[in-house]
Amino acid sequence: MHQKYQNGLPLNRQEHDWKQLGVPLNRSKLANWIIYCTENYLHPVYDYFHRQLLVRKYMMADETRVQVLNEPERNPETDFWMWLFRSGEDDFPPILLYHYTETRAKFHAASFLQGFIGYLETDGYQGYNHLPDIKRCSYWAHVRRYFTDTIPQGKEYDYSLPAVQGVQFCSKLTVLKSKKIILRSRENNSVLKKKSLYWTHSGIGWISSDQTMALVWRKR
């Protein structure tokens, strides 16, 4: 699965690689293994992270066209859609989930986001409108693009133009946001050090292995 989806190595090439190593594995068996692992192991993990994402207070979403072959009763040239839902910068571990649908109909977004209460940052797609308990936010990058498109050629530094002023305003917001992220990171490191000191003296500690953190109890 890692070779196919992470490294882009098709199953037929993997079949030949295994054959050279003396292991008779055909692509059908490899495909069945992938389907089995997805349905029995990865799907429950995905559902868990989906539930965790819905309890956050801030989320980002976007969707893009993809081409899919051999879909029943649909031409390969037909547009299919891959949605991306991501947690915000809320000091919790980030969650990124992909969601595939055959169309871009808004009920797909409504179904995936059912139960979410908070702020949703998206582009201008109207399919996110009128979702219950959701406050829509816009990407400043998209707002900035409209300002950029209206600046006459050669007038990029004419600060008397409202469009140029709009670009400067959006750029300033981006810089302020970056500074806040840096300050928040420094604050988190300070808080983590204080918590580590407390856990050490209270009998609670962290054990680290291969970038995986697990909470353990130490005997006093």
Structural class: alpha/beta
Query: Reading side by side through the largest sheet, how are the strands ordered?
Result: 3-2-1-4-5
Radius of gyration: 24 Å
Helix content: 40-55%
What amount of the residues lies in strands? 15-25%
Q: Assembly state here? A: single chain
Order of helices and strands: HHHEEEHEEHHEE
- The figure for the number of domains is 3
Low-confidence stretches: 198-220
Provide a descriptive summary of the structure in words.
The chain has 220 residues and is an alpha/beta fold. The protein has three domains: 1-54, no CATH class; 56-138, no CATH class; 146-204, no CATH class. It is 46% helix and 20% strand. It contains six helices and seven strands. The protein has helices at 2-6, 11-20, 27-54, 106-112, 140-150, 162-202; strands spanning 58-66, 80-87, 96-101, 118-122, 134-138, 204-209, 212-217. Strands 3-2-1-4-5 form a five-stranded mixed beta sheet. Mean pLDDT is 82; it is low at 198-220.
Architecture blueprint of SSEs:
Blueprint: H1 2-6, H2 11-20, H3 27-54, E1 58-66, E2 80-87, E3 96-101, H4 106-112, E4 118-122, E5 134-138, H5 140-150, H6 162-202, E6 204-209, E7 212-217
Parallel strand pairs: 1-4, 4-5
Antiparallel strand pairs: 1-2, 2-3, 6-7
Helix pairs in contact: 5-6
